[in-house]
Amino acid sequence: MTPLDLASDWRRETVLTLDKMGIPVEYSHHEVAPSQHEIDLRYADALTMADNAMTYRLVVKEVALLNGVYATFMPKPLEGENGSGMHVHQSLFKGSSNSFYDANDPHHLSATGRAYIAGILKHAPEFVAILCQWVNSYKRLVPGYEAPVYIAWAQRNRSALVRVPMYKPGKEQATRMELRCPDPSCNPYLAFAVMLAAGLKGIEGNYELPAPVEEDIFDMSAEKMASIGINSLPGSLHEAIVEMEKSELVKETLGEHIFNKFIENKKMEWDEYRTHVTGFEIKKYLSIL
Predict the structure, then answer these.
(1) Cβ-contact 63, 14 below 8 angstroms
(2) Which of 28, 48, 76, 231 could form a disulfide with 140 if both were Cys (CB 3.0 to 4.6 A apart)?
(3) Is 256:247 a contact under the CB 8 Å cutoff?
């Protein structure tokens, strides 16, 4: 059922505006959290999609302002509610042929597709700072709110970092992977670049893809996760920057100047955050310490 939400009309206005600007929309609907909406853009090559994502964010904000409200792409604006993600679907094509598809594989994934996903999983801790680049991003990446924390892949399991949508007969061209950790406040040009670099590194190195994990990882014990080799993404911006700083892959992809400046900027943000005395601390400690 469509929720009786004032913003449904504003979302429709946004979709129609995007269409007039030549940016096709495939789906739009209300999401789980209050006043949270999803608009899915039709696929395009990586550079065009990065351009479209930037235009999309501006259109959303302009339509909101015209209607007297404010639209935010903040990853976790409301405590105790689901945060906002930017799930990125990816596939590789040679001409008109989808390089991810293989009719003989149980999951209909080619060796190329499997290696690409393996590259994403292996290098995710190194590049997550680009995909989730704010202190607030890591308030979203916690168990229990549909946001992926655990480095694994699956077809039906939405607690995994990577999901491979189920194959439908006749839909070979739609064979793809979905990376679920990016948030909509990232720089899409940098984000798409590091994702592609990690996937292509997996193909180049012939990385082996582990078995899918269809069990709900949120319900697993730490011992169970360790026994099947499931690790977690960095838990804070600081941890993510520490991982990125060690990454030759990210440095090579972004170039030395952007790599160093990004890390410098994010260290400044983390220092500002960690020295700030929050309302939580006042409420928690002032009366007892």
Answers:
(1) yes
(2) 76
(3) no
b/e map 33-53, b = 16+ CB within 10 Å: beebbebebeeeebeebbebb
The alpha carbon dihedral of 150, 107, 164, 97 has a sign of: positive
- Residue 166's CB is within 10 A of a number of other CB atoms, namely 10
Gap between the Cα atoms of 55 and 33, Å rounded: 24
Q: 15: helix, coil or strand?
A: helix
* pLDDT tens digits for range 162-203: 998 887 787 888 889 999 999 999 999 999 999 999 999 999
The pLDDT tens digits of the residues spanning 110-159 come to: 999 999 999 999 999 999 999 999 999 999 998 777 778 888 888 877 77
What's the length of the chain? 289
Q: Residue 31 has what pLDDT?
A: 83
Contact 18, 25 (CB under 8 A): yes
Q: What is the pLDDT of residue 2?
A: 63
Rounded CA-CA distance 24/5 in Å is 24
Q: What is the DSSP string of 43-70?
A: P--HHHHHHHHHHHHHHHHHHHHHTT--
* Long-range pairs of 273-278 with CB within 8 A, sequence gap ≥ 24: 273/135, 273/237, 274/238
Distances (CA, A) of 47 to 77, 84, 128, 131, 187: 28, 23, 19, 16, 12
Q: Please enumerate in sequence order all residues whose Cβ is within 8 A of that of 2, keeping only pairs 6 or more positions apart, or say none.
A: 8, 30
Q: How far apart are CA 284 and CA 64, in angstroms?
A: 36
- The confidence band for 278, taking pLDDT boundaries of 50, 70 and 90, is very high
Query: What average pLDDT does the chain have?
Result: 91
Using alpha carbons, select from 69, 66, 67, 59 the residue that is nearest to residue 28.
Answer: 59
